[in-house]
Amino acid sequence: MVSFNIHGVPVSNGIAIGTSHLISNALLEVVRYDIKTKKIDFEVKRFKKALLTVKNELIRIKKRLLLDSNSQFAPFIDTHLMLLSDSNISDEPAQTIKDEKCNAEWAIKIQLDLIIDKFNQIEDPYIKERKHDVVQVAERVIKVLLGHRKQKINFKNESSVILVAQDISPADTLQFKNHKYGAFITEMGGANSHTAILARSLNIPSIVALKNAKKLIKNNDTLIVDGNQGIVIINPSSAILEEYQYKQNLWEIEQKKLIKIRNVKCKTLGNQTITLLANIEVPEDIKSVKENNGDGIGLFRTEFLFMNRSSLPDEEEQFNIYKSVTKSMGKLPVVIRTLDSGADKNIDVDNNNKNNSALGLRAIRLCLSEPHLFTTQLKAILRASAFGNIRILIPMLSSLQELRQTKMLIERAKQSLKNSKIKFNNKILVGGMIEVPAVAINADMFANELDFLSIGTNDLVQYTLAIDRTDDSVSHLYNSLHSAVLRLIDNTIKAGMKYNKEVSICGEMAGDPKLTKLLLGMGLTNFSMHPTSMLTVKKQVLSSDPKKIKIKANKILRSIEPDNIESLIQDINK
Amino acid sequence: MIKKEVKIINKLGLHARASSKLTQLASQFDSEIFIIKDSKKVNAKNIMDILMLAASIGSKVELQVTGSDEKIAIKEVENLFKNYFDEGE
């Protein structure tokens, strides 16, 4: 059998190995057939009966949930119940059956298409997302009508079952809740979807946005789901399988140990305190930051506010989100990065995103060329700064002129707030992302004019090595341990020390436990990463002897042979 | 019939949870309860219609209540808006 990999967005960590089970998509199976006039009443009754069956089913699920202490899911079911009794779902299709003389399944499908159309016209991304709830409810009714509601998943060895679906509704997930399935993977969804949030709370590995997964994966294929990397391996070779079985065991043992260090202070053996911050994308991620006892938010990406919508978010909307995030973090720092739309995350500004390549008009360049857009965001951040410990982070600086221009815009935003007598933190810290090699080389000049520096290693590697991250054919050349990259990081950390400015790393490297000791040895004290990586990194910090790792880190910095660097990394982690 | 204008003051506006609370409350009354925003008139007992109003913070909507229990109904619905849909902000 041919082995191959597909990549998606990892939304819940862990590794699962098992066999695939495809969940059918009832909507695709719906066909239209005519109903004879004298059978119409019967068809309407059949429809109403299906509604009742689904209603009872949902009520049963809800009751079971309320018995469970973990009843945070009950509101989802309530919403589904209400959608079910909404006349758009409960009455309209009955009328369609009569008017069109068609079967009930088809009547629901027509109605659903109409509803989806309406939802698609809504601008608010959150409300727009709710169309999935409507689809899920309609699907349930259709499944009952089609008679394969009884398609229950019954397996002897549940933990080795990997569910493959187009999308999974909260109610479906709950049915799975009392079972110990291995993982679930879906074609749809994002980091912010119901599926993702629920998967994390159920603590099963999960990957979403796996395009065509249901076409590529057949029932009973052997699958490895690597929820840490976002990779699904289909029909792996026995060698790969063995490797992952080993990884899976290690992961499980590791997880149990890690929870114990949650409340331990993050210090090296030399008693130096290390700050572990979180990278977050949406306000909902804060839950995970708290679970892992993070020292603050080191990178709040604001792109989600701008994506998947036809109009830009106004100051009020942004202000409310920034404010709620900083309020929930109390006195802990929240670093808000201004809009960093780029090659891999397009937004629509005046429908003009032709120049959105990695080297094009993106991030601060875009913001400076659209001062109105930028000022709106700056004012929203400044206003929110009155409610907590907010800092501003500017992405993709490449020259001091850009920095000065940006600071001027910040001053103007401040002035306009002062004029309107709106409160904000006048001493708000302004930092810059160090991700363009030119800036890493001149890091001292930037350290002199900035309040803090944050190294974005993903882009720094891409720009230093001239590797297009979106081009698979050169991905093997992407190497964050290239000596040129390490030297640029070293130069930046030293510049920060010289000017007594805080330096942090907020790219993938900060969350990679293999590199923790190297970075500590280079003098880094602030790490910002995905919240779920925090405890693994903390564990590395706790076992670090500053004197020893400093010597070894210096050795790595002097080394230029890639093989040599790899073996030195293994040595520093011993 | 009683009419009243209310302002949406909760942070998230009439999103899923607030809409479900409104629908649940409205369904307890015999009166017909309509919500009007920008000339769109929807039945408060239909969650989907309310969702599709996409009413966000700061927007104003009109309540129209007709029926035997209209007085108490409009009061309770208005209170729900005023209490931030019990969301705290």
Short description:
Chain A has about 575 residues and is of the alpha/beta class. Helices cover about 50% and strands about 15% of the residues of chain A.
Walkthrough of the structure:
The complex is a heterodimer of chains A (574) and B (89). By secondary structure, chain A is of the alpha/beta class. Chain A folds into 3 domains: 4-20 and 157-240, Phosphohistidine domain (Glucose Oxidase, domain 1, 3-Layer(bba) Sandwich); 26-146, Orthogonal Bundle (Enzyme I, Chain A, domain 2); 257-546, TIM Barrel (Alpha-Beta Barrel). Chain A is 48% helix and 13% strand. Chain A is built from 24 helices and 16 strands. An 8-stranded mixed β-sheet of chain A has the order 1-8-7-3-4-5-6-2. In chain A, strands 9-10-11-12-13-14-15-16 form an 8-stranded parallel beta barrel, surrounded by 6 helices. In chain A, helix 13 (315-328) runs parallel beside helix 15 (371-384), helix 15 packs across helix 16 (400-419) and helix 21 (513-521) crosses helix 22. The longest helix of chain A has 28 residues, at 40-67. Chain A is globular, with a radius of gyration of 26 Å. Chain B has 89 residues and is an alpha+beta fold. Chain B has one domain (2-86): Histidine-containing Protein, Chain: A. Helices cover 36% and strands 26% of the residues of chain B. Chain B is built from 3 helices and 4 strands. In chain B, strands 1-4-2-3 form a 4-stranded antiparallel β-sheet, covered by helices on one side. In chain B, strand 2 (32-37) and strand 3 (40-43) form a beta hairpin. In chain B, helix 1 runs antiparallel to helix 3 (70-82). The longest helix of chain B is centred in the last third of the chain and has 13 residues, at 70-82. Chain B is globular and about 35 Å long. Chain B starts with a strand and ends in a 7-residue tail after the last helix. The model of chain B has no long low-confidence stretch (mean pLDDT 89). The interface between A and B is medium-sized, with 24 and 21 residues.
